[in-house]
Amino acid sequence: MNKKFLLEQLNRAKFCALDELKFHEKYDKFNTWMHHENGHLELIGLIRDWISHDEVIDVKNIKKLIRNRVKFNCDTIKEIDKKYYEDEDADEEMSEDDNFLYHFSDGMNCEAGVFLRILNKKYYYNKGVYIPTNWDEFMGNK
Length: 142
Prior knowledge:
Layout: H1 3-27, H2 32-52, H3 59-85, H4 96-119, H5 135-138
Helix pairs in contact: 1-2, 2-4, 3-4
């Protein structure tokens, strides 16, 4: 797997996440999906940083870095779950900071799954992601 291919996959992933972010800015009243998409973008940036310094791509090392990030994010999500959902009688609403962190971490894990599949040669973003979606038409608001 070469560097040019991975950088192009990162560009396509970023474009896809930005396109979906436009949708969520317009239609997501609670910002949860916006936080999720920002998690996608953060992981894309981290992967780009990891591979931009190396001439030769060490796929095994990148997978290890991604899995470590997933573990960290899963621990964060578990802590937030424990805080709000451990007690069945708890009616406490999630704080804005915890809501952001929960969905941001989930978005990073989501993109991590995609990139692990890309690194395993089981998935790739095709050029079609460069065609922006007309979200108003998609939602029936012509």
